[in-house]
Design brief:
The chain is an alpha/beta fold. It has a single domain, classed as Rhodanese-like domain (Oxidized Rhodanese, domain 1), CATH 3.40.250. The protein contains 7 helices and 11 strands. A 5-stranded parallel beta sheet has the order 5-11-10-6-7, with helices on both faces. Strand 1 and strand 2 form a beta hairpin. The chain is globular.
Length: 208
Amino acid sequence: MKKIILLFASLLALGVNAEGEVTKEVFISPGLVFVDIVHNSETVRLQRDQDRENEISDFYLKTARGKIQPMHPFAPHLVETIGELDVIDYAKKRSAGDDTIMIIDTRTPNWPVITGGIPTAVNIPYTRFKKKERALEIMEDKLGVQVDDTWDFTYAKTLIMYCNGVWCGQTPAAIKALLSYGYPAAKIKYYRGGMNAWKSLGLTTVNL
């Protein structure tokens, strides 16, 4: 019985390349090879690079950048730190039309040009959250915050925020600013691995 299960698992891992040759597929998670995502009105196939010889881009090879961010840097605020499978799940929901979700690349604009971004994400640099007046405009125009005499976060979007990775402080700076303005911690998700982890797994990137 054990041999049959192992054989079945091996067969599941087989794919066929453009030349018709049998290959082993690179999985996102057990049984899942790709997800079709709508980004800027175009369908993008979100998957890991199927070339088993693919390597992380040279841009992320240096190990001396930045400072290591804590796993939970926002205490006492309970902002959830999430991983790649969570981000993919949020991207699927956003792609399916769930406008209560927004994936935000918080890096300054030069970074997404160099490395690309996560499908369905929008680039709102962390610097735009640092000044309260500018942040208020963004929250009202893009993030679902209703502003009158007071700020109403009832319909505020759930934000999935990322930058370059565990050594990058851009997302932590943006999240800390949002928290200081009263944005609910429960509606903020911190993808700590960021683009460094995303690209190290060979996951699909897009132009933002």
